[in-house]
């Protein structure tokens, strides 16, 4: 019987550095941010909060699609079916958020954002109840920590905006998504003080590093046996 990771403690999930605990922390952060947005506030505060949610959602999902789901497809029974369902959820979120971003003055914007929140919450439930427990079943604590480190490296330099045309699976997602991360992160950094050239150089180097990880990281746990 599959047990949701929400019902297990840190030790049972491989420790604080494991991919399962990293996922839990991101999901909890997203839940808090969405609740804060729904509570209302000044327009500029809500806009900044929304942008933070968007950045976290898309970097998180890109790292999942690059690192986690290929492993799950290889290691777990019904992995193809499980990951295909979540990839469909990710695409629906991508399409809806892209609509929000392209229509800042549309009177339906708040309604679309709330719809996006519903999709994100459903995606989190599906991952925590169905997909992530399969990783716990297939990998040792040590492997879960190695997977977590690889996932974090990819997430740190992944695209942070919706790109509905980018494939959901590697290597296509890396070929089209990693170059876009440079532009996304420069947009994210635009309000930050300091020389633009220095920031651009830093982001570009990070994207190059992420590309290398994207193409090599799945080999880290090529054999799912416990060690």
Description:
The protein is mainly α and 227 residues long. The chain has seven helices and no strands. Helix 2 crosses helix 5. The longest helix has 33 residues, at 43-75.
- Estimated share of beta-strand residues: under 5%
Distinct helical segment count:
7
Q: N-to-C terminal Cα separation, in Å?
A: 23 Å
Query: Would you identify the regions where 5 or more consecutive residues have pLDDT less than 50?
Result: 192-201, 220-227
The chain-level structural class is mainly alpha
Number of strands: 0
Helix content: over 70%
- Cα shape: globular
Q: In angstroms, what is the radius of gyration?
A: 18 Å
List the helices and strands and how they pair.
Layout: H1 19-38, H2 43-75, H3 79-102, H4 109-138, H5 141-156, H6 172-189, H7 196-216
Helix pairs in contact: 1-2, 1-4, 1-5, 2-3, 2-4, 2-5, 2-6, 3-4, 5-7, 6-7
Condensed summary:
The protein contains 7 helices and no strands.
What attributes does this structure have?
single chain; 0% strand; disordered C terminus; 71% helix; 227 residues; 7 helices; mainly alpha
């Amino acid at each position: 019987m599959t047990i949701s990771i929400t019902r297990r403690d840190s030790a049972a999930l491989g420790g604080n550095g494991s991919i399962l605990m990293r996922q839990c922390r991101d999901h909890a952060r997203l839940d808090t941010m969405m609740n804060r947005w729904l509570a209302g506030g000044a327009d500029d505060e809500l806009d900044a909060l929304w942008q933070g949610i968007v950045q976290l959602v898309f970097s998180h999902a890109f790292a999942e699609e690059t690192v986690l789901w290929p492993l799950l497809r290889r290691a777990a029974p019904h992995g193809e079916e499980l990951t295909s369902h979540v990839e469909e959820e990710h695409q629906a979120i991508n399409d809806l958020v892209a609509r929000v971003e392209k229509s800042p003055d549309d009177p339906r914007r708040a309604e679309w954002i709330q719809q996006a929140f519903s999709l994100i919450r459903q995606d989190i439930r599906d991952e925590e109840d169905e997909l992530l427990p399969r990783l716990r079943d297939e990998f040792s604590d040590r492997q879960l920590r190695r997977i977590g480190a690889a996932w974090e490296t990819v997430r740190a330099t992944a695209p942070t905006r919706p790109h509905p045309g980018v494939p959901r699976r590697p290597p296509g997602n890396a070929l089209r998504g990693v170059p876009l991360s440079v532009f996304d992160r420069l947009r994210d950094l635009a309000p930050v003080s300091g020389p633009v050239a220095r920031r651009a150089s830093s982001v570009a180097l990070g994207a190059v590093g992420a590309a290398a990880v994207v193409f090599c990281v799945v080999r880290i746990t090529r054999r799912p046996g416990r060690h």
